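User: Hello! I'm new to structural biology and keep hearing that structure can be predicted from sequence alone. Could you demonstrate with Diguanylate cyclase? Please show me the input and the output so I can see what each looks like.

Assistant: Of course. The first part below is the input, the amino acid sequence of Diguanylate cyclase. The second part is the output, the predicted structure written as tokens.
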Amino acid sequence: MKSNHATKTGFRITGTKPSYVLESQSLCEQYGIDPSQLPIFEQLSDAELRDKLRDYGEFLAITDHFMERMLGTIAEPIPVLLAVCDYEASILQIRGDESIKSFMDQIGFKEGVRFTEELTGTNVVNLSLRLKRPIQLVGDDHYHRVFYQAACYSVPFRFEQLGDLTGTICLMTTAGLHNPLFMNMLQSTLDLIEREIMLRNQNKQLHILNQIMMETEINAVIVTDRKGQITEINKCATNIIGVPREKMLGQLAQSLPYVGSYFTQVLEKGSRFEDIELRIELRNLVGLFDVFPIRDEKGSLIGAYGHFRDITERYETEMKINYMAYHDELTTLPNRRMLIKYLEDKICDYERSDGNKLAVMFLDLDRFKMVNDTLGHSEGDVLLQQVASRLVRCIGSGDLVARMGGDEFMIVLERPHVKEIEETAREVLKTFGTSFVIGEYDFHVSASLGIAVCPDNGTDVNSLMIFADTAMYRAKAKGKNTYQFFDPDMPLITHEQLVLEMDLRKAIERGELLLHYQPQVIASTGQLVGLEALVRWQHPVLGIISPDKFVPVAEETGLILPLSLWVLNEACRQNKRWQDEGFRPIRVSVNLSALQFSDEAFVQTVASVLEETGLDPQYLELELTETMAMDVDHAVGTLNALKELGVQLAMDDFGTGYSSLNHLKRFGLHRLKIDQSFVRDLISDSNDADIVGTIIAMGHLLGLRVIAEGVETSEQFDFLLSKNATKCRDTISANRCRRIRL
């Protein structure tokens, strides 16, 4: 007896395709298969299909039972399709979700067709049969584009006890639900099928007492006489009960825990029980229990036969699948599916409740994108886990915290009055007051909270979630790090944001963006020595839109990269044009975005822009913030590469971030820019004046030029002059720059 289905899956952990995928796809190209067309399946004749179903009939009866049970363990919303193929890759059996089954049937995937790589392209069936190992194909691992949204898994089998029967069992779902546990489920199912085949063969050979079964250590067996006294019991059964065989013989099976009542009904009524699921807590076992009457050749009842099959491994796999269906993998919090179900149940129970208010809170982290763009997604995941832990500690045991995805969380709680809801909201925001430790950095991340209340704002789940989301955006608009209750006027804000995002996507191609420039002058002489490029949006309806309105939208939607590239191109092009018109060469500064600076191809992008515009690199200055440079090794490497190009480098908004003197020395900067928040009140605030003076002195000690941003009054100018600030800056338009004697 032997089964050759694989025990190791070998899942990929990188973005590189396995060699067997590349080889198969190369063969498909040689065959001339068009990936944009539907795959072709070879149709079996009625006689061929009939013969195959006859040969595999007993096996298919077993797989049908286990596939149905396997599908029953998977949460309803998950689309899954299971199939059994023979050694020639012919589909003999299909079970699963009706929607995906109907879709695949239209493609040609149905019982009675055969996979061939020459016609069907790269597929898990042919590959697993040819390579004799488990295979998974996810997304574009498939050759045909129609399967790009699919994840497929296949495990080959070989059962000598069924006449050396070979083939493969497959599972298909959507690519977004790809998970290694699906392969584990297939392998566990084949293990169970193998056991079932073994039991059936043994039952064929034995009439009353099956000696082979009695000796197995996999399943527990108990045999009784007509009165219920135990006449045979195997080692597995005695191990589970915890009593030696000698003491068990002669005992009444009717008195056994868990199974006694079933033996009673068999012996008194001749009943039969199959696949009764039992959980034996003391042994941490889960099994399927069968008990049948034993009859002699005349049909008279002479005893009972009980059989317990250990399915603990499969049960635990099912539990994991169910857990994954309703929990977030990263934080282990309930996910959107579980939250919706929980909220539906709460609303249904609301009429029977004591009148408490049901609050739905939508929480979104402020500045989370900055952490992701600066330190990477793995560190961002650490922050999300810490946030989840704090929220769970903050919220009461009777309330629910769920992760909706990204940096969004939802809280559902019951309180007697709105006043108590507000107190909880303040406690939630207060928990963000302590910094989050991520690696060697301390991050101060706040949150914005939107609140919808049932029944005040309705009793519909979707509406309450939308209203809470809308209120959260109002909280962000009010300056973030606050909470806001929903009111009916709020949806207009969300609508305006959506319109702004759609218009921004077209702004570059329509030529609606323009640059304004801020002059940089030497404090002691007033000489103009540089300009900083600042992007503005000339909206056809709304007029000039400032960056603080549309840059956050660009960052949230990923439009920041094309926007940043446009600014870099335009600033270099404009500077070169001024020089070509005869103006004295002058340096133009461009602000970088975190996502732009973290791009591995960024240095090459800058080099390409300089080459295309013809601007000498010494007349381009790139400004980064302290936050962008928190990944010091990446920052040093990138900045050194930029210096090799000849580009000037500046640290913008200095004093608001996390830089150390040691890091500043390693960065090799040319200039420091004092954030305007310190300059604004330096005349009236002695603390700001001290900070500005210290930054200027420190910059000079490090050999850096210092620029003070946002100088608007003569008093500010005189103060900076007294401190030997190198340059000052205020704002002018691009047209005015043409009239300045550069």
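User: So the tokens describe the shape?

Assistant: Right, they're a compact way of writing down the 3D structure. Reading them back into a model, for example: The CA atoms of residues 650 and 662 lie 16 Å apart.
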